[in-house]
C-alpha cells in the first residue's frame, strides 16, 4: 500500500476530477481543497473513497487560503505533492471583462497558487512533486481570451522559476489544448467555442492517465496535443506574420 499523500485543487470537476480518481486507483492518499463540500461528498463518498479527505477553501479568497496553514498544522502530516488543477477563464474581449472576472482569473490561475504553495510548503516533503495544469493558450495571442492566456503565461513563469528556486522539488508543467470539460460552459456559455473546437478537444480520462505517467517519469513538461505545441513553436518564430495569415484561427474564441 502506498504511503504517498497528495493535495489537489480543482478535484471536483473536469481534468482534476479524473486525475483524482486515477491517483486514488494508484493507492495514493488524497486531500482535496474544495469550495463546494457537498459536491465533494457526492463525488467521493467515504464508503467508496476512505482515503480521500477534503478541506473547504475558496481559491478566490486569500483569507481562506491563509487559514489553511493552521488546518494542515493541526493534522501533523507530510505531503508528497501538490496538483493545482483549479482554473478559471472567460472568453470575452479585454474590456468586456468585469472587474471581478479579471481579478478572479488571475487569483485562481496564478496569484493564489503561489499563496497556497507558501502556506503548504512547511508540510511538503523535501522532494515533493508540484504539478501545474497550465494551457497552451499561454503560448499564443488570444483575442477574447487574453486575461486567461496572460494568467497562464504568468503561471508558466512561476513554475519555471520554482524549478530553480526549489531544486529538490519535482516540477511538472502541464500545457494542454482545449479539453472537453465543464470549464467551457463557464468560459463561454454560448457553447460556440466548444462547438468550433469539438474535433480537437482532448478527453479528460486518457489525458489524466498520461499526466500521471509523466509524474512518475519525473518529466518537467508535458504537452498535449503535441502537434499543437509544435505549431505554436513555429508561430513564435514570426508571430505577427502568422497572426495575419491565420486571423480566423486566432479569433476562434470570439462570440
From TrEMBL:
<protein>
    <submittedName>
        <fullName>SDR family NAD(P)-dependent oxidoreductase</fullName>
    </submittedName>
</protein>
<dbReference type="InterPro" id="IPR036291">
    <property type="entry name" value="NAD(P)-bd_dom_sf"/>
</dbReference>
<comment type="similarity">
    <text>Belongs to the short-chain dehydrogenases/reductases (SDR) family.</text>
</comment>
<keyword id="KW-0560">Oxidoreductase</keyword>
<dbReference type="Pfam" id="PF00106">
    <property type="entry name" value="adh_short"/>
</dbReference>
<dbReference type="InterPro" id="IPR002347">
    <property type="entry name" value="SDR_fam"/>
</dbReference>
